[in-house]
Amino acid sequence: MFTQNGHRAKLLTLWIVVLAITTFACQVVSPNETFGSPASPPEQAVQVTVSAPIQAAPTPTPNPDVHEEIQNIAGEDTVLIDLYARVNPSVVNITNFGEVNSQLEPLGQGSGFVFDNQGNIVTNAHVVHGASGVEVTFSEGTTRPAEIIGEDLNADLAVVRVDILPEGVVPLSLGDMEGLAVGQTVVAIGNPFGLAGTLTRGIISALGRSIPALTPFSIPQSIQTDAAINPGNSGGPLLNLQGEVIGVNAQIETGGTTRSNLGIGFAIPVSIVRRIVPDLIEKGEHQWAWLGVQGGDLTPTLVEAMNLPLEKGAYIADVVQDGPSAKAGLRGSTDQATVRNRQVDVGGDIVVAVDGQPVNSFDDLLVYVALNVSPEQTVTLKVYRDGEYRDVQVNLEPRPEDMQSPLQLP
Predict the structure, then answer these.
(1) Is the Cβ–Cβ distance between 370 and 402 less than 8 Å?
(2) Quick check: is 152 catalytic?
(3) What is the pLDDT of residue 401?
(4) Can you tell me the distance from the alpha carbon of 329 to that of 272, in angstroms, rounded to the nearest whole number?
(5) pLDDT number for residue 255
(6) pLDDT tens across 326-353, in order?
(7) Average pLDDT, whole number, for the chain?
(8) Is 156 a catalytic residue?
(9) Fold of 90-161
(10) Secondary structure (3-state) at 155
């Protein structure tokens, strides 16, 4: 049996243990506070234990950043849904046919988009080149025969025409290169692997790329994108979020191991589309002006090797024999030098301006000749040679059709 004092001591010990456990678990009592009288009934401790979590539970506060992010996502979804509804009817599937055993058989497939109300449709030249017949299928299922109106292998662009557009199908608007920026959201619509009406979304990964044409020349100002482009997308539009065409999807980087997209695709820029397509519709072809040079950007190695007082420009490495620049007296590399154990071709002219426009890179020269002048016109090149600047006038000629060299020449 416990004595009265023994009983009180037992209760005191039990009370201290209960209070100590409650304080640790709920952190209701501060370490500087006392536990109070040992005569305090255990029920109060239980009441404190039960009520403490209720008192400590915070009232949920909405996170404005999360709410704004959800609104932004919903808004972008709405933009893409609306864009697709407006644009997709004007994007077509193109099938090319060739003769197999004296019969026409489908040989390839690509994409295109309606350019005007006369039934002209833009696509890649490589989609229809050499075809014996072409069919165009619209998004609502109508299939119509089409005629190849014109093609340009230098730009990898072609125009095919149907007699009548389906009801409700309207031309797509063309955008502009001005204002395009790396990181900008873009959309591709086309028929990858024949899967009609596929939309993919990405960004502009780079601007000002030069990509190979179907000739020895190159296509300047091309747009690089990570929007998924696969076989069958060729000829379809690359669009900004206003639904304007800013490029024609044409090429992908595959690494040589696959036919599928690796996140690097290229579109022919709308600046080239604006210049070439009207000529294809009117004349069936486009005449490109030609300088007849090969070269590259002025590099620090060249600057050191040639002891140059300038850092930017287009270096002329080679001048095509009997070409316009050769006739004008432009000079390519004449010697070699060794810089940091590297051999460098030296002695060529450095172009720093064309018709008064600054030339900071070889691509600047290529773009100017491609977009601003025509054959039979004369351009004035400001070049640096032998320690001085001089003006060289070049009478431009049409690009030759029989060049076999795989050079990228402006």
Answers:
(1) no
(2) no
(3) 79
(4) 30
(5) 67
(6) 999 999 999 999 988 889 999 999 999 9
(7) 84
(8) yes
(9) Thrombin, subunit H (2.40.10)
(10) coil
Fold assignment, 185-275: Thrombin, subunit H (2.40.10)
Q: What is the pLDDT of residue 71?
A: 57
Instruction: Reply yes or no on whether 163 is catalytic.
Output: no
Please state the pTM of the whole predicted model.
0.77
Tell me the DSSP string of 306-339: HT-S-S-SEEEEEE-TTSHHHHHT-----EEEEE
Please provide the CATH number assigned to the domain covering 289-398.
2.30.42.10
Identify the H or E element spanning 176: none
Q: Which of these is catalytic: 126, 218, 325, 364?
A: 126
Residues of the chain whose pLDDT is less than 70? 1-74, 255-260, 402-410
| Gap between the Cα atoms of 27 and 33, Å rounded | 12
Listed by start position, the domains of the chain span 4-56, 90-161, 185-275, 289-398
Give the Cα-Cα-Cα angle 15, 17, 19 (nearest 5 degrees). Answer: 70
> Which candidate in 111, 139, 152, 156 is catalytic?
156
User: Residue 351's closest CA among 295, 403, 404?
Assistant: 295
Give the three-state DSSP class for 393: strand
CA–CA gap between residue 170 and residue 284 (Å, rounded): 23
In the set 234, 271, 325, 333, the catalytic residue is 234
Question: What is residue 1's predicted lDDT score, i.e. its pLDDT?
Answer: 44
Same fold yes or no, 90-161 and 289-398: no
Q: What DSSP element (H or E) covers 218? A: strand 218-225
Task: Identify whether the C-beta of residue 303 lies closer than 8 Å to the C-beta of residue 340.
Answer: no
Are 350 and 362 within 8 A, CB to CB?
no
